[in-house]
Amino acid sequence: MVQPAVPKIHGIIAYPVTPFAPDATGGIDTTRLAALVDRLISSGVHAIAPLGSTGELAYLDESEFDTVVDTTIAAVDRRVPVIVGVSDVTTAKTIRRARYAERAGADAVMILPVSYWKLTEREIAQHYRSIGDAIGIPIMAYNNPATSGVDMSPELLVTMFDNIENLTMVKESTGDLSRMHRIAQLSDGQLPFYNGSNPLVLDALRAGRPDGVRLPPTCGRSPASTSMRRCAATTSRRPSSSTTT
């Protein structure tokens, strides 16, 4: 399989909440979701990532998942990259979601390792490899042990990056800055990774090296906040932290 091009993901990645209708149906409020996505883009974010932890991915059925994907991608209208969270409790279910996101027009998918039963590193790698073989867009490996119960080491993440063609980036949400340095060291600066811990935004930027290690942050969820504006200004001033290609 030809390795997919890594989309130009940099700066502020917004993770929208998933609004539900207040009536008895309780379905996805597509009007409010589209309005939220439009407001985020108009406020200056650089990418949209629906169905992350804040998007309640773990609690949606397949129809709701599909609706969020379709609504978000239509609202974005190719103004910024879209990274869709597609994690599920089995590899097969994750593949279904990843394929749906790809067909809908997602630029990349974000995936947690399978939770509940503790897997070996070999089994985790096989999970990602199977998904990678089933789709043709990039995968962002998502390391968030606080929610998944699985902690992928920097060594495992870099090994998967080296051996799975379309696993091309990592979101690291442990809040451990030393891991960011370790990933950069092990990959010789070749593995783009994204800081998922808001308090570490500036530290993650400072961890970048002048020879081109890319450490774009995911900072804030409210673009109206002062911290969001400062983050945008900071990333725009640091070329080594503003691109993944």
TrEMBL record:
Tagged with keyword Lyase: yes
Signal peptide limits: none
Family designation: Belongs to the DapA family.
Name of one Pfam family that matches: DHDPS
Organism whose genome encodes this protein: Mycobacterium kansasii
GO molecular function: 4-hydroxy-tetrahydrodipicolinate synthase activity
Sorted UniProt keywords: Lyase
The keyword Mitochondrion is assigned to this record: no
UniProt-recorded name of the protein: Putative dihydrodipicolinate synthetase
Gene Ontology cellular-component terms listed: cytosol
Biased composition (Low complexity): 229-245
Region: Disordered, residue numbers: 213-245
